[in-house]
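Input chain follows. Return structure tokens only.
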Amino acid sequence: MGTIDQEAAEVDMDKVMQFVFRSVEEVGATLNTALVVMGDRLGLYRALAGAGPLAPAELAERTGTAERYVREWLNAQAAGGYVSYDPDSGRYLLPPEQAVALTDPDSPAYLPGFFQTALGAVIDSPNIVDAARTGAGFGWHEHVSDVHEGCERFFRPGYTANLVATWLPALDGVVEKLERGALVADAGCGRGASTILMAQHFPNSAFAGSDYHARSRRPASGRGRRAWPTGCGSRQRRRRATPASSTTW
């Protein structure tokens, strides 16, 4: 195995500083992840969307939050290009492009779930470090809920835009089978976004979603009941992912 001759290596300080400044940007992006999740959870982006320029006090009043924190949040968002700032009026504006990406959950460009997943991964990092030391696995169920919810929020708009319109038609004969009526197993369905979407578009088929993760199954089951309040269980069924039920429909 070759070794690196440390004495022969010359350090280019310009490259060192380039790396340092790049790392500063990475840290800033990491910190801003929490601020984006904050803006999503407090409804700050939604209150800004379409509202025109707002002062921090106006945004705080609309969202029931503290003006001091909102002002600091707005300043950070302006520095990152998420909102624009008018120094003459002291007001902040959410551009329409950012509004689509940050407030429209049906847009394929919707991003809050992506940031939520990233934040959850950071929160999980101490457990990942422990797993790396021991070689033990780290199950999906062991992640914090932000990872589970964030993944579903991030991928669901893509399912809505592409699953029925593009992805299923790319499979030979699949759409025809679903239209006639088929039994479909959605293994590893998570929170049920793809299962319910297919069931809504293909009422002649019966869909069974399975996932070993109970905290994902529960919201999926609830969404199924809300989608079919009259109890259309024969069209969309769910089973627990146990050896006895995962392949029995």
